[in-house]
Hints:
The protein is an all-alpha fold.
Amino acid sequence: MNRAYKELFLNTVYFSLGISAVFAFITASVIGHSPLGFSWGFNFLGIFLFIYFYNLIMSVLNFALSLFCKSLVMRLVLFNIVGLLLTALPAYHFHEWFLLSLYASFIVLSAHSIWSQRTADRP
Length: 123
């Protein structure tokens, strides 16, 4: 399997699910109650699905950049610039600064890209 496809599979299946579950658990626990009176589980599920969709888009973006950019440094720079824009602009627009914590998914996906590249370069 090609390294880029393998990285996409790991990012979408394992890392995106893990990041989404942790972020949804923390956010649902901090919110504690819903303005509409929904339970913690419903809040968790809604937040989880939103964050998972967001992470899937980021994984596909990382995959597309891996196909077009041969340099790992250039790919990560572009990926993180897009990540800052996609997290900072909604946070600024809605004045909800906790949205900046979504940038943690970019850090994890970038770290996985570096690790994946280093293991692929080994003899």
